[in-house]
Amino acid sequence: MPSGFNINFSGKCVIVTGGNRGIGYALSRACAKAGASIAIIYRSSADAEEVAEKISKEFSVKAKAYKCDVQDDALVTATFKKIDDELGPVTGLIANAGVSVVKPAVDLTAEDFRKVYDVNVLGVFNSARAAAKLWIDRKVKGGSIVFTSSMSSQIINQVGTSQPLTQAFYNSSKAAVSNLAKALAAEWAPHGIRVNTLSPGYVNTDQTSIMDKAIRDHQAANTVLGRFAEPDEMTGQTILLLSDYASYMTGGEYFVDGGQLIW
Ligand code: NDP
After folding, report:
1. What is the CATH number of the domain that holds 143?
2. What is the pLDDT of residue 207?
3. With helix as H, strand as E and coil as C, how does 213-252 read?
4. Which domain holds residue 113?
5. What's the CA gap between 8 and 11, in Å, rounded?
6. In a domain, 263, yes or no
7. Complex-level ipTM
8. What Pfam families does UniProt report for this protein, alphabetically (predicted)?
9. 150, 152, 153, 178: the active-site residue
10. In total, how many domains does the chain have?
11. What are the pocket residues of ligand 1 if the criterion is a CB atom closer than 6 Å to any ligand atom?
């Protein structure tokens, strides 16, 4: 028996949307390290299959990449069913894929709105519903869902003191998805399904690396810990929420933000 606090996911199967890079990649690896089979959902990255193979070899688990745009409800439902047949039974979902448009609010368009909300809100909903349907149809109680929202559900990100980053649709979409988790937690509790939200602060990924260094320095200096997180630092909270140790946790939003929100 291993000593200490141990979370063992052998026999489990976790779907991670956007699991091929950034925070999602760290989450895929962490679930695989705990022993779960991993299904990575990606949109267009050419190396996603290689990424899955690498994870499979490193942790001796089944891991496979599935190309699936989370905006497409029918495709998401069919892909989750395929995953359930090939790697399942599916036991957990991390709905992590997300995008942003950075632009002054006066210039934002309906197309920008759809670009952000169709992934960050509808895409998360499509993923959650497809997973919940698998579990409800199976008539076996259980299943844990974690949304990757953001501390941006609560604050307006800045590029300098009192200067907004200008991503109104991103911030509001994250507030929407954090609340969506509460609504789904309430509806699906009778089926034994838990729905929670991980809300990261600033994390070193492709999404943040495109910002100017001066902006990143300002943002880092304004966290209590004085730095961005590494993607791996998002894994502990997420693994806990997926696990049976979180059996009394649902509808919660958990901030892993280096203390940003205390200011
Ligand atoms: P990245 O930009 O590094 O990666 C985005 C991932 O989402 C990719 O795997 C991408 O797939 C996938 N994706 C995007 N759109 C779709 C789609 N329509 N269908 C399927 N997959 C899609 O993101 P991060 O790792 O930075 O962020 C992950 C999550 O964390 C997001 O929800 C983000 O909003 C949130 N977050 C990030 C923070 C940060 O500082 N980085 C802070 C707080 C929250 P592909 O590779 O194929 O394009």
Report:
1. 3.40.50.720
2. 86
3. HHHHHHHHHCCCCCCCECHHHHHHHHHHHHCHHHCCCCCC
4. 13-258
5. 9
6. no
7. 0.99
8. adh_short_C2 (PF13561)
9. 150
10. 1
11. 17-18, 20-24, 41-45, 69-71, 96-99, 119, 123, 148, 150, 200, 202-203, 205-208
